[in-house]
Specification:
- There is one protein chain.
- The protein contains seven helices and seven strands.
- The two termini are about 15 Å apart.
- A hairpin with a 7-residue loop joins strand 6 and strand 7.
- It has a single domain (about 20-180), classed as Vaccinia Virus protein VP39 (Rossmann fold), CATH 3.40.50.150.
- The chain has about 180 residues and is an alpha/beta fold.
- A seven-stranded mixed sheet has the order 3-2-1-4-5-7-6, sandwiched between helices.
- The longest helix is centred in the middle third of the chain and has 13 residues, at about 65-80.
Length: about 180
């Protein structure tokens, strides 16, 4: 069972507990869905990177905050975690080097519009990379324009047909909460 800090909404202990900075119910669901043969693509590193590294084959993590990138990289090196590729990126670099491989799980949990990279652009570029079984996680979904769409319209627009959708809200969560779309079992 995953241990989650009581103050998870602050994000302060996610590295120590090695959990994503997501609504707790979403973490429990991911703990059930993830398997050792999955490949993960995430935008925004931290406790989620450590969490995914223990449960999946590989993690490709993009971080756009240099200070945070350095901290997470230091932890990965100290813990000798070798199945994570952590990349510091700028908008120009990411536009020129966006991944083309397939991933089973995509997490968009980066700061909104830092370095000019829009979350909508990340979503449109990353969702087509999903391969079976699929898990797509959008944190702080209320700060994202997709919350104006019905769940059905969101699923149709971003080619997530056949996926279940779970929305986990929390009163202390910035941007409402976490949405998980999945067809993994």
């Amino acid at each position: 069972m995953v241990k989650i800090p009581e103050n998870i909404h602050t994000g302060k202990e996610t590295l120590e507990y090695e959990v994503p900075w997501l609504v707790p119910e979403a973490i429990f669901l991911l703990d059930k869905l993830l398997t050792k043969d999955m490949r993960v693509l995430e935008f925004g590193s931290g406790g989620s990177t450590l969490f995914f590294s223990k449960r999946t084959r590989s993690v490709t993590s993009f971080e756009d905050d240099l200070k945070w990138y350095t901290k997470v990289l230091g932890i990965l090196n100290k813990k000798k975690i070798t199945n994570v590729g952590l990349v510091f990126y700028t908008k120009k670099w990411l536009e020129d080097n966006f991944p083309t491989d397939g991933f089973n799980c995509v997490l968009i949990d980066n700061k909104i519009s830092r370095n000019g990279v829009r979350r909508k652009w990340l979503l449109e570029k990353s969702v087509p990379l999903l391969t079976e079984p699929k898990i797509f996680i959008l944190d702080n979904y209320g700060t994202f324009s997709s919350d104006k769409l019905t769940d059905e319209a969101f699923i149709e627009k971003y080619s997530l047909e056949g996926c279940r959708e779970e929305t986990y809200n929390h009163p202390k969560w910035k941007g409402c909460g976490t949405r998980v779309f999945y067809n993994a079992s």
